[in-house]
Write a structure and sequence with these properties.
It is a single chain. Helix content is 12%, strand content 39%. It has one helix and five strands. The strands form two sheets. A three-stranded antiparallel β-sheet has the order 2-1-5. Strands 3-4 form a two-stranded antiparallel ribbon. Strand 3 and strand 4 form a beta hairpin. By secondary structure, the chain is mainly beta.
Length: 57
């Protein structure tokens, strides 16, 4: 279902497919590699599926 997934920044709302090259990553020593939003720099991101998005509306 990767084609039906979207990765969203919880801070600014930026959205793009999970494997899109726009997403950056940062190293956090205790946690490892984290996905970073290119819009605001937040690492508070989540991946959701279209079925979850439809229920939110």
């Amino acid at each position: 279902m990767a084609a039906d997934a979207i990765h969203r920044c919880r801070q600014c709302g930026f959205e793009a497919p999970p494997n899109d090259d726009v997403w950056e990553s940062v190293q956090h020593p205790p946690l490892g590699e984290l996905t970073q939003c290119p819009g605001c720099g937040s690492t508070d991101t989540t991946t959701i599926t279209r079925s979850h998005r439809a229920r939110r509306r």
